[in-house]
Specification:
homodimer; six-stranded parallel beta sheet; 11 helices; DNA-binding
Chain lengths: ~220, ~220
DNA sequence: CTAAAACTACGGTAAACACCTTAGTCTTTT
DNA sequence: AAAAGACTAAGGTGTTTACCGTAGTTTTAG
């Protein structure tokens, strides 16, 4: 009985590459390749899936949102995340959500196969570097993991709108003009966002935006 | 006689996916799959390649650097770039370098096949949205295309070091401490970087860094 | 051995950001 | 109806960034 895998990635080429890796094996069976979180959820509602392999950045419903829904509503499905980036600040919230794995797209095929098998068998797989960052040093990250994740204290839709606009290079004044609100209001939103994310300058803010798919 | 294709991408899964797309066709032949620009150049020196399909973000020698070398030293090889991002500011310099195509990794397989065939036959393929941005409106971008690209007036290694550190969330003072130079010097570098890239705030700077693989 | 480029540094000014507080309006939830 | 949350706005203050110019030292290239 092969492991039933769902792949969700909005990049057809990448999704195909992943699928190809599994197709050459007998123990794995890719039962679906979808392009976004919405399609993933729709498929899981109707079919049996052992492992959902989700890209973090996807349109319509992103990987994190999707993972949240899957782990709460379909407890038989184990979720693993795929990402372009090495970002330990995401991991904390992923662990809280109940995700069983996190791997970069730089992972070699054979390691991916092993990781999926381990996750299927009840283990977890997290990118080595990330694990290291969480467990040793890296100052803030481990500390944040112990208290409640700032990411879970989620951003409101208005705040997401603001952070998106900031990361497009707009100043508070420009954003205010675009959204027909006072630049002071934008500043207030900005402050709240930074408090929630625990970052202290624009650079880190944009960094967060990019690594969480909050860019256009 | 199939079209001989070299694929350069540091993500094995993605490279495999692309290769797979071509392997199912008779008119195309993937002659090499390499992980970085250096390996791509080494292969091209020794073998016949019609099309080099390069990822923009690669370690050791990145896609842009690699494209530059190929178009100047191996004029028989046509270069097409693959990118995760939709960034018209890169395109301008790519065109200047002599790249024949630019496509996002969201491209469907059949369109990729067609694009490669067209490029092989002397045409060009540029992502539709990018072309639109270049040709109509988008204020600055077309203007910049006419004068020399700011990206070509390249960043020095020290400047790359600085921009990397900025995008990690460090302030000028922090960077100064880390590199044992005055924060004023960091500011000077910063000013020079922004002039070269024609951006005017941290947000746009980080955006550039992320879209050009200048992050850690 | 020059000339060019890179790296270093500072003075000065205006704008933007970071952070704090308070507070009114509106909508949603209990 | 009251509480909670979201969105709006502003006062105030210190820091950082953005952009000018100038200029010395070191490294690299012709």
């Amino acid at each position: 009985m092969p492991i039933k895998i769902l792949i969700a990635d909005d990049h057809p080429l990448i999704a195909e590459g992943i699928k190809n890796t599994f197709d050459n094996q007998t123990d794995y069976q890719v039962v679906a390749v979808v392009n976004n979180g919405k399609e993933a959820l729709e498929f899981i509602e109707q079919h049996i899936v052992d492992i959902a392999l989700l890209d973090i950045n996807m349109p319509i419903i992103d990987g994190i949102e999707c993972a949240k829904k899957i782990t709460s509503e379909f407890k038989d499905v184990k979720v693993a995340m795929l990402s372009m980036f090495q970002e330990s600040s995401i991991i904390k919230s992923l662990i809280d959500i109940g995700v069983k794995g996190y791997m970069l797209k730089t992972i070699p095929s054979d390691e991916l196969l092993l990781a999926i098998k381990n996750i299927y068998n009840g283990k977890e797989y997290f990118n080595a570097d990330v694990t290291k960052a969480l467990l040793s040093g890296d100052s803030a990250s481990f500390h944040q993991y112990q208290k409640k994740s700032p990411l879970l204290e989620e951003l409101t839709s208005r705040e997401k709108e603001i952070i998106k606009s900031i990361s497009q290079g707009n100043t508070n004044t420009q954003i205010g003009e675009k959204l027909f609100i006072s630049p002071r209001t934008v500043d207030t939103h900005r402050t709240n966002i930074m408090r929630k994310l625990d970052v202290h300058n624009v650079a880190s803010l944009i960094r967060f935006a990019f690594q969480n798919g909050l860019t256009s």
